[in-house]
Specification:
Blueprint lengths: L15 H17 L14 E6 L5 H12 L3 E6 L11 H9 L5 E6 L4 H8 L3 E7 L5 H15 L6 E5 L6 H12 L3 E5 L15 E3 L2 H4 L5 E4 L15 H8 L3 H4 L7 E3 L12 H4 L6 H20 L3
Helix pairs in contact: 1-5, 1-11, 2-11, 3-4, 5-6, 5-11
């Protein structure tokens, strides 16, 4: 089986079989990461360009590692040191880079839809590494992989995404992917940070952590994205932590253990208490490792299907 598209632009509309193919492929690449020699040759001779128009540490390094583990030639693009700072458009930037005969493009951009736009103007495979508040598909996939690794399944799993849903591309990709795979998805946060039409996707909405904690297997805690928010969406970070911060005290009231996830970076003691982030309930570091395996799987499936 192959992926239906030459690109990975989002999880919205992706079939259950395609998501399962990526997760299953990642299993073998995850094993490679534990070997003394972690490099394999599937993308030898292929050139991958990382176009990161937004600041990124985890996602950019994860993609670069995945590309190098697959033996690709890697070029990483810095906006500040490029012609973008002189006013060059995304289309011209991409076409000029493609003229250098590259095979794949990984893009992160502040504008929603940028990855879709890029896929229409270049011949290379395009992977969305986050486009504005739209989607972050590889993060959604690595979160699902981590949950499946922990629980052995996604079907019937009860997952709550906590925090700033409105501004989160991670939340959207998780919602699309988890629902497709048969999980029960809920969200929890202030009414000002949750889209009004979310329940139409089959998502339950809560505004009190105390109401949802007894009902779930895992909490995926989102970073408060102050850089994308308008002022006045909640009174203060202290107030947010009081009502929606995930802490050991709140989680201890659950009838059983709850798995704690976070896409990073963490605002410690704001959306997630430091002691819980570092506790046995946390799979945050496993998410980071699994991210490399997932991105290897995506790069392999797209890069070897032409």
């Amino acid at each position: 089986m192959k992926l239906a598209s030459r690109h990975l632009l989002g999880l919205d509309g992706m079939s259950r079989e395609e998501i399962a193919l990526i997760l299953d492929t990642a299993v073998s690449f995850r094993e490679i990461l534990d070997r003394p020699i972690k490099k394999v040759p599937p993308l030898q001779g292929k050139t991958v360009v990382n176009l990161f128009f937004e600041s990124s540490t985890r996602t950019r390094i994860s993609f670069e590692l995945a590309e190098r583990r697959l033996s690709a030639d890697v070029v990483s693009f810095s906006t500040a040191a490029s012609s973008v700072s002189k006013g060059e458009t995304l289309k011209d930037t991409a076409r000029n880079i493609e003229a250098m005969k590259i095979d794949m493009v990984v893009i992160r951009h502040a504008a929603a839809g940028s990855a879709h736009f890029l896929s229409r103007v270049v011949d290379a495979n395009v992977i969305n590494a986050g486009d504005g508040g739209h989607e972050h598909p590889t993060q959604g996939l690595l979160d699902m992989y981590t949950l499946r690794e922990k629980f052995g399944k996604l079907e019937g799993l009860r997952v709550c995404i906590v925090g700033d849903i409105t501004h989160s591309r991670v939340a959207r990709s998780n919602i699309y992917g988890l629902i497709t795979m048969g999980a029960h998805v809920s969200v929890c946060g202030p009414a000002t940070l949750i889209p009004r039409d979310l329940e139409q996707l089959g998502v339950k909405v809560y505004h009190r952590l105390e109401d949802i904690i007894p009902e779930v297997d895992a909490l995926n805690v989102l970073r408060i994205q102050l850089e994308r928010q308008k002022s006045g969406l909640f009174p203060s970070l202290r107030e947010y932590h009081r009502f929606f911060g995930v802490t050991k005290e709140k989680v201890s009231k659950a009838p059983g253990p709850i798995t704690i996830m976070h896409p990073g970076p963490i605002n410690r003691d704001v959306e997630l208490s430091a002691d819980l982030a570092d506790s046995e309930h946390s799979v945050i570091l496993q998410q980071v490792t699994n991210g490399v395996a997932i991105r290897m799987a995506v790069l392999y499936l797209l890069g070897t299907s032409n």
